[in-house]
């Protein structure tokens, strides 16, 4: 299944922001609709495990190819340090090579305000979230899409993947050479 | 705390129960005792915060200090003590879950002995008990699991 934006984005007022609500486990999150390029099913994912020294790259569990471009799929549970859940969808982030594995897509809605995370929160969540918003009397964290994987981390991971592909191709060529000899 | 600790000066405290023990906060920092409210939770890594409350249009972080003060077997928390703590330009509300009703007491803040934990900023001597006065900032700075 592919849900791709087909209509041009509407101009929006400064105070109203369309967001996509998605779930991971029992938690509902919001992400700016403008930060999402596509919502996909899990079809076409290739499993991968990063051997890189970057500890943060361990959350990259899959890759996929779209329009001849490799994408890195971040397991949201590993990103948020939450227990494993049943992922069914991928949010492909706009203007990046990063996608996020999530349990389900709830719906779209419009936010009128994103409130700052209270100062009492001092951990990684300050990078993870832009703030909190109220959706039907429920406080929902609004994720910061850049926090899933930085550009530097993406570059390292993509380089590692390219190196592996080149190594595999070399092995195949060597094996073919040995057979023909 | 420094102002309150001037020799002989009596200060107001809110005594709150956690299991069989009672602790105290400076009354100036406490705004109300609230009934249980809906706790909104989301992933985070800050120790002792269990979530946030949405009260009167404000986001109030909930700081469950019971495990620090009395250990992991704290009984069910029944009320929220809403306090004002440093944070941001004008301070920030923080809800502290407590296990029973609170009480106001006026007493002199006595200096701590070296054997008490670092989060105790003084003690007050009541008729039948010595109560530790807690510095919420220091409790929240205590190492622990999110």
Largest interface: A-B, 23 and 21 residues
Counting helices, strands and paired strands, the structural category of chain B is mainly beta
Report the principal-axis shape of chain A: elongated
Q: Give, in spatial order, the strands making up the sheet with the most strands of chain A.
A: 1-4-8-9-7-6-5
Unreliable runs of chain A? none
Class based on secondary structure composition and strand pairing of chain A: alpha+beta
Major β-sheet strand ordering of chain B:
8-1-2-10-9
Strand content of chain B: 35-45%
Count of alpha and pi helical runs of chain B: 2
| Helical fraction of chain B | under 10%
Low-confidence stretches of chain B: none
**N to C succession of SSEs of chain B:** EEEEEHEEEEEH
Cα-atom Rg of chain B, whole angstroms?
Answer: 15 Å
Quaternary state reads: heterodimer
Q: Overall mean pLDDT score of chain A?
A: 87
> What would the average pLDDT of chain B be, to the nearest integer?
86
Commentary on this structure:
The complex is a heterodimer of chains A (181) and B (146). Chain A is α+β, with helices and mostly antiparallel strands. Chain A contains 3 helices and 12 strands; from the N terminus they run βββββββαβββαββα. Chain A starts with a strand and ends with a helix. The mean pLDDT of chain A is 87. Chain B has 146 residues and is mainly beta. Helices cover 7% and strands 44% of the residues of chain B. Chain B has 2 helices and 10 strands. In chain B, strands 8-1-2-10-9 form a 5-stranded mixed beta sheet. In chain B, a hairpin with a 2-residue loop joins β1 (10-18) and β2 (21-26). The longest helix of chain B is centred in the middle third of the chain and has 5 residues, at 66-70. The two termini of chain B are 28 Å apart. The relative contact order of chain B is 0.26.
